[in-house]
Amino acid sequence: MITNELVNQSIDYIMQHLDEEITVEDVGNCCHFSKYYFSRVFKAETGESIYAFIKRLKMEQSALRLRIEKDKSITDIGFDYGYSPSNYSSVFKKHHSISPAEFRKGVNTTCVHHPLYPNNLAKFKSFEEYDQQISIQVFDDFFVIYERHIGNYIDLGNNWCAFTEKYKNFFTGNTLLIERSYDDPSITSVEQCLYDICMTVDKRCSLDNVTTIKGGKFAVYRFEGFIREIFVAFQGIFNIWLACSGYEMDERYGLDIYRAVDRENMHVVMDLCIPIK
């Protein structure tokens, strides 16, 4: 868990400016520290240097866009992250061990290997089947207590148990439990996935680790099933539904809103929410 709130602020800054030429000094300045001091703090919390973190996110977020923005050229996507065509291809291949063109050609629209359960091969539903379970909704902003983690999604259950126990006195009848995910574990190493676990609270809450999750328009898929099946549902929404829906994902990140949890049987009802324009 990332416990330094300034590091969390710097990650938010990087996410919001990923399509710009961000320097280490820019990140330090946003937190009012010298780049040398803040670089040490950042690496101690995240395990990566600021430069490596920025470069990795550019490669992984651009790979996600190659997958879902099929009508946008590879050159334009690379340019959005500050790369010339030849440089983007070189850096992408070094990071992913495959060229951007090969990556895009290899996107599978019928099934997916599960990165958390490598022996599992799961098949996607049809566009029509996903579309029947998706509604377009507009959410207000969410004011939340949050904890940010870098690591394997398989640890989510234990992290949620610790989180809800720690903040049990803040629960009310209207409390929502929300996950905000930043990475696709079929692209990002499972040990480097970044995610927030959150619970809604009153805006008068004076804890340090509170933030606002921006609302807006979302495509909402009602998922009912076992926790291990959530990854496959998300992949199907991105690879099948979003690519053919006519909607575009915007700069916000996906949310999972829990509606019911059966921990004993590892079964949940939740809304998988994809931000759209």
TrEMBL record:
The keyword Secreted does not apply. Residues 8-106 form the HTH araC/xylS-type domain. InterPro entries: AraC_E-bd, GyrI-like, Homeodomain-like_sf, HTH_AraC, HTH_AraC-typ_CS, Reg_factor_effector_dom_sf, SmbC-like. Keywords: DNA-binding, Transcription, Transcription regulation. Pfam families: GyrI-like, HTH_18. It comes from the Bacteria. GO terms for molecular function: DNA-binding transcription factor activity; sequence-specific DNA binding. This is AraC family transcriptional regulator. It comes from Desulfosporosinus fructosivorans. The lineage of its organism: Bacteria, Bacillati, Bacillota, Clostridia, Eubacteriales.
